[in-house]
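Please, structure for the following, as tokens.
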Amino acid sequence: MSSDNLLVRELLDLKASQIILLNAINEESRTSREVVDHFMINYPEYYSDSPQGKELGFLTSEQLFPMIRYLGRKDFIKRDTSQRWMITRKGRSALLQNTFLTFRNVMRIIADPYEKQLLPPHMNE
């Protein structure tokens, strides 16, 4: 990836994180379906199956924190015994260290079983 592309990605990451965090402060809890819709419409670069998402469809741990806050479910964010961040939901968890998680994987972790039925089939594999 060229340095120009990296800069563009960093700017997109920063802008999206700030917007999501601002939107999250006074929002009520939303269902996973609403969050999927919100992200697909407003942040296509973070939706891993979108054309833009082929290059930019990953979420870093820094982007996940405001996303979880947007959901109104701060209790998903935990630290394990090694002080690494984890996202947890009803027995499903993913380690947030230096790894990148796709938006699809994040939604699969946090979605309720009923809400997962509402997700597009390709996100529910």
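The longest strand covers residues 85-89. Residues 3-24 form the longest helix (22 residues).
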